[in-house]
């Protein structure tokens, strides 16, 4: 009988141990399951939320780069156009400085030709001066130099410089009566306005 009691006690102890071990195993399994459930895996919903954000950012960046490219292209076209205009103007008015320096020379030639020649030597000298003057005028015309029109034209402040006024009832008011100094234009640019006397 004593043996059976001991055996029974032994059995009871073994059962208690097995229940404790089972409970430990189940708690370990539960914690593992809990850990697995708590770690968030990227679901399809999360991925689909992140992708539109990235796509929107990329679209915005692309739009900014396109706008930047358009602005750079416009700046480049404007610079090219300005350079073209400058080149045309430089070619068109390349002789401006030289012709401006030659204007007093032309004035002196005209003054010399206004002097009356009385002797044969003076007449021949005057003829030589006229030849030089004509060749100089031809050379300047090839470069685009033209005298400003003054005879019986309406006064224009852009090309005329009024230094005197006079009353002439036979002509309209504002008409140029006399040219006091020649004015010159280089193509469409005024090099020197003509000094004139204007009708009141």
Number of alpha- plus pi-helical segments: 4
Helix and strand composition category: alpha+beta
Task: Write the element-wise H/E pattern from the N-terminal end onward.
Answer: HHHHEEEEEE
The largest sheet has its strands arranged as: 1-4-5
- Strand proportion: 5-15%
Rg from alpha-carbon coordinates: 53 Å
Binned, the helix content reads 55-70%
Characterize the overall form: rod-shaped
How far is the N terminus from the C terminus? 159 Å
What about the largest sheet?
Answer: 3 strands, antiparallel
Q: What assembly state would you assign to the polypeptide chains in this entry?
A: single chain
Low-confidence stretches: 36-40
Average of pLDDT: 82
The number of strands is: 6
Topology, element by element:
Blueprint: H1 2-38, H2 44-92, H3 96-114, H4 120-142, E1 145-147, E2 160-166, E3 176-181, E4 184-186, E5 189-192, E6 194-199
Parallel strand pairs: 2-6
Antiparallel strand pairs: 1-4, 3-6, 4-5
Helix pairs in contact: 3-4
Q: In a nutshell, what does this entry contain?
A:
The chain is an alpha+beta fold and 200 residues long. 64% of the residues lie in helices and 14% in strands.
Would you kindly provide a written description of the structure presented here, covering whatever features stand out?
With 200 residues, the chain is of the alpha+beta class. It is 64% helix and 14% strand. The protein contains 4 helices and 6 strands; from the N terminus they run ααααββββββ. The strands form 2 sheets. It has a 3-stranded antiparallel beta sheet. A 3-stranded mixed beta sheet has the order 2-6-3, with no helix packed on it. It is rod-shaped.
């Amino acid at each position: 009988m004593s043996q059976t009691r001991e055996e029974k006690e032994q059995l009871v102890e073994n059962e208690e141990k097995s229940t404790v071990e089972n409970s430990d195993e189940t708690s370990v399994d539960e914690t593992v399951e809990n850990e697995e459930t708590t770690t968030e895996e990227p679901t399809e919903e999360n991925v689909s939320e992140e992708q539109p954000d990235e796509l929107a950012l990329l679209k915005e960046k692309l739009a900014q780069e396109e706008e930047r490219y358009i602005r750079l292209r416009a700046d480049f076209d404007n610079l090219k156009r300005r350079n073209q205009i400058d080149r045309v103007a430089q070619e068109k008015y390349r002789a401006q400085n030289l012709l401006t320096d030659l204007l007093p020379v032309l004035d002196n030639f005209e003054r010399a030709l206004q002097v009356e020649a009385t002797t044969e030597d003076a007449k021949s000298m005057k003829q030589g001066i006229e030849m030089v003057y004509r060749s100089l005028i031809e050379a300047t015309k090839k470069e685009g130099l033209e005298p400003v029109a003054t005879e019986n034209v309406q006064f224009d402040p852009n090309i005329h410089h009024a230094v005197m006024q006079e009353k002439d009832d036979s002509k309209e008011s504002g008409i140029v009566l006399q040219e006091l100094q020649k004015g010159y234009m280089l193509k469409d640019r005024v090099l020197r306005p003509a000094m004139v006397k204007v009708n009141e």
